[in-house]
Design goal:
Blueprint (H helix, E strand, L loop, with lengths): L1 H25 L6 H7 L10 H68 L21 H60 L12 H34 L11 H13 L13 H12 L1
Helix pairs in contact: 3-4, 3-5, 3-6, 4-5, 5-6
Length: 294
């Protein structure tokens, strides 16, 4: 009996030891505030990778390229207004002066020829009271007026040649500004395609230089350049006709043909003429001129 009792006691002790061991394994040390803090500490910010740094740089690259395109467009507009349109306006005044001078030369020349052919110096017309002396000119007066008109006509022809040369130079300057604009615009498109395709980065919407507005402005510059080139060719043709009509027959009755040629060129010269290639873009020219003047 003693042996069985001892065995039972040993079994109870073994059970107790096992239970104590199991309980001590499950009942881990109570969680302290320090341990909870360790388990719930906020994750540290992930250091920026080279990709994120590239994104930051690229977000500043797009507006910079866009601003470069806008500046090149403004340079194109300034050359258009300050040089091309300014020379064109001066040439219009010169052509009007040539048409007026040719009409005056023709009229004086006709009067001079009639004076030589008929005897107008009668007592009634040479100072007698009650005659037509108040409106009578001597041949010397006609010679002086004709000489003055011919000298002014030569000066206007010189100004016409110089003005056409200046307009041609302005057209070349427009071409250079357009080349710069297209180069910057292509760089802007390439940069935007790269960023949009790889990182989904684009210029901020509040900037006025996003793709759509810049594309429309560049397309307008192309249209203006084509129109000014056609207009320059049209006016070069008119100037050639006016210069070739400057012959000695301008002093005779046949000078009416030369006067008509100059008058026709003067009437068709303005950009508002329907024959002008700039007639279709006249509204754009007015808007750009107002912007540059400000």
């Amino acid at each position: 009996m003693s042996t069985s009792t001892n065995q039972d006691d040993e079994a109870d002790e073994m059970k107790k030891a096992y239970m104590q061991f199991m309980l001590s394994g499950k009942a881990s040390a109570p969680s302290t505030p320090s341990s909870s803090k360790k388990n719930h500490t906020p994750s540290k910010p992930i250091p920026s990778t080279p990709l994120s740094s590239n994104k930051k740089k690229q977000r500043f690259v797009i507006p910079k390229i866009a601003q470069t395109v806008v500046k090149s467009i403004d340079a194109f507009h300034r050359v258009l207004v300050d040089e091309w349109l300014s020379h064109d306006d001066n040439m219009r005044l010169v052509m009007e002066s040539i048409a007026d001078l040719r009409e005056r030369i023709r009229s004086v020349s006709q009067r001079q020829q009639l004076m030589r052919e008929t005897s107008l110096c009668t007592w009634e017309e040479c100072g007698m009271r009650g005659g037509r002396s108040s409106g009578f000119l001597l041949e010397q007066d006609l010679e002086l007026a004709l000489s003055h008109s011919l000298l002014a006509h030569e000066r206007m022809l010189t100004a016409l040649r110089q003005g056409m040369s200046q307009m041609a130079q302005a057209q070349e300057a427009l071409g250079r500004r357009l080349d710069d604009t297209m180069a910057h615009f292509h760089a802007f498109q390439a940069q935007e395609r790269t960023l949009t395709g790889e990182h989904q980065v684009r210029a901020p919407d509040e900037l006025p230089s996003h793709r759509e507005s810049i594309g429309a402005q560049v397309e307008e510059c192309l249209q203006l350049f084509r129109s000014t080139a056609l207009e320059l060719f049209r006016k070069q043709t008119m100037v050639r006709g006016v210069l070739e009509s400057s012959t000695d027959s301008l002093l005779y009755l046949e000078g009416s043909k030369q006067s008509v040629a100059a008058s026709k060129a003067s009437n068709e010269w303005p950009r508002s003429s329907r024959k002008s290639p700039l007639f279709q873009v006249n509204d754009a020219l007015d808007r750009i001129s107002k912007k540059i003047v400000r």
